[in-house]
Amino acid sequence: MGSGLFLFALLLCLSTASLWTVRAEDPYLFFTWKVTYGTISPLGVPQQGILINGEFPGPNINSTTNNNVVVNIFNHLDEPFLIHWSGIQHRKNCWQDGLPGTTCPIPAGTNFTYHFQVKDQIGSFFYYPSTAMHRAAGGFGGLRINSRLLIPVPYADPEDDYTVLIGDWYTKSHTSHTALKQLLDSGRTLARPDGILINGKNAKGDGNLQPEKTYKYRICNVGLRTSLNFRIQNHPMKLVEMEGSHVVQNDYQSLDVHVGQCFSVLVTANQEPRDYYMVASTRFMKTIHMSKAIIRYTNGKGPASSDLPEAPMGWAWSLNQFRTFRWNLTASAARPNPQGSFRYGSINITRTIKLVNSFGNVDGKLRYAINGVSHVEPETPLKLAEYFRVPEKVFKYDAITDEGIPEGSTTITVAPNVLNATYRNFVEIIFENHEKRLQSWHLNGYSFFAVAIEPGKWSPEKRTNYNLLDAVSRHTIQVFPKSWAAILLTFDNCGMWNLRSELTENRYLGQQLYVSVLSPALSLRDEYNIPDRTLLCGVVKGMPLPKPYTI
């Protein structure tokens, strides 16, 4: 080979290698958010809301699997603030979870940058403020993760894709979130909500449909405490995805969406061209609140009918609907760890954790608890205390046992509630609800297999009723009154992860805990080091950084 040709070939190889290196890093999405107060009137009553870049709800994040998401948040409120990314697993990176147990709040007048990767996930999610009662004032928005182009989804591309955030809403005072916080701090409970919102509005319209086209709606319940039923007038909804998992595609006239849950549905515009209502209404309440939004055919010739589809009655209907949800085992998509495993039903359970929710009075004030312990947030985030090797200065591990508590027990201890879990153990968690109100539970950092919900009390014999083949892999599960639910998962994501009641009153007054999953090797293969410029507070402020993890 001549020297000129050899040099050309060498340069070509180097150029190709360089190009490959650039392409090997996943794309970045950058956002700058200004969090401010602003006057909003979603139910016709002016009140102080929390806006992101002047928007209520906040901006929609539209990402793709494995994207790096960088969000620089400027806190222009008059108090500390955090954003939590509900359902995002943050593999090996609980530092970005945005909860008081993992992160120091962003002080007023300062900024903080979140940097996380939506690794091996697809689906519909949302974000919201995790500090104080800020969620009651807004600051929430949609977060979608689209499948990469090389990985097909089990349905044709829709004509358009809409996020629909539904939730209960309070108008207690001009500064409603502050009033609700003061109410809870005084030991009282929240009253019933004042109304229901669809995308921050009541009785407003959004979305135009072209005849015979199919549209995707991502429906998330971002409210504080109320289960909602969602339906679209004269249009069945084909359920295709739930909290990050493709599901067997059944048609539904309506869907119960419990607090913290997200569903994706396909709707085809094949009815008489006119306006139609989408409806969200309360479930399991004597007084029914309802919100409507209009979807409009582009060639429509008439207003929406006042004859609205009715919501179902009772929680047995909702339980039966849950039993129709099945994981789509044939779809190409990111899978729960261990990657590609469908045989969760044949893995030996190494630990059973029974969690019983309760409530009672402590020093004359209402508290909610898990297994008799009501969590309180210490000044030092739990993960920081653990990482800096000073957990004993902040909390004690395993304040609760794995056996639950007897029904009717009202003894409550107020303390940080941290459960110590063994890395890569396959565990069974039982949620038992002895109360007369529905519960909704969420686990950060993971998806779990929701294998059963049944009335009554759990016992080992109930395992024969588990769905051990195609239970949906998800991150929330509801537990009906006087009922139990069972989930299965592998604790394979190191970090400090929050397990909580999605009912905001319950969570705020202690019905949550953190699961500590440590890497025995303290290795970067299992968990990332504390990021640069992490906010430090409490007992770790001013301490030297520990020796970093290595491979």
TrEMBL record:
CDD domains: CuRO_1_AAO_like_1. The keyword Signal applies. The keyword Metal-binding does not apply. GO terms for molecular function: copper ion binding; oxidoreductase activity. Residues 35-148, 160-299, 380-519 form the Plastocyanin-like domain. PANTHER family: MULTI-COPPER OXIDASE, OS01G0816700 PROTEIN. Belongs to the multicopper oxidase family. This is L-ascorbate oxidase homolog isoform X2.
